[in-house]
Design a protein that fits this description.
Strand order of the largest sheet: 1-14-13-12-2-3-4
CATH superfamily of the largest domain: HAD superfamily/HAD-like
Strand content: 15-25%
CATH class of the largest domain: Alpha Beta
Distance between the termini: 32 Å
Length: about 300
Amino acid sequence: MAKTKFCQGISDISDSYNAFILDQWGVLHNGDEPYDGVLDCLRELKERKKFIIILSNSGKRSEVNKENLKKLGIGSGLYDMIVTSGEMTWQGLKDQKEGFFQGMGKKCFLLSRGGDRSIVDGLDIEVVDKIEDATFLMISGSDAPKQNMVNYYEPILKTAVRRRLKAICANPDGRALLGDNYVMGPGLIARRYEDFGGVVHYIGKPHKPIFHHCIKILQDKEIYPGQTVMVGDTMAHDIIGAASVNIDTCMVKNGMHMGAFKNCHSPADVDRALNILTLQYNNVRPTFLVDRLKWGKALPDRKHKKRKLI
């Protein structure tokens, strides 16, 4: 198994790839603000003509995520495209012609954050108030931390199982980042539905369809998996998912697994922590490891003032 290369920043690997697939939460921002160095790093990548896809397990559509990123100061000029599991779900429900989406019906019982219905906006689908009236179950978010226990949703899930409703999980994340804290994600609700005997179709990382969608986008630009790297903060979704389609990976230490590296004071400590993570996640190792999404080298100030270290 190849060793993971420790990098000071993305500048260490930028010359090796034509495309960068970036996770959103935990890599670009924490939900409240971008991480230090992110904006400069994105500018440097765009300056070098790299194709940037932001890939998110968000249960919201791409346009919604675009507006949310803009509010955080990450404008559309800093990347090329956003791909979300919510967008892929919307497109699948619109046609209901392929695979799991066939025959889903028109009546949806929706579990989302704060009653958000954007994932079905514009579709010929009715969101019903009673699970007994639904033809399928949609899990796109949770009301954690307000409702932070999976058993809060259990009566709904048990009724859905008795009615043999198929479920779509438009956000497979088991934990969601809110500010500096992680809370229960919709993926845990979906897995509980499976525990009860329900059938769930997962859309998003680490499942291959969303990565194949990104690969198709890049191939249209004559960029191939060997010229692409995925930057993520989770072993379970970003690293394992990209590795399964032969895309190199770069993990940031400041996201989901920050606790694993908390007491590391030397490269040897970091290597031991990474070995433990690797054993926990099917012996898959990231190709590269960085502290966070930062450029890493001294950057020339755009106004030709003093040089600064990002």
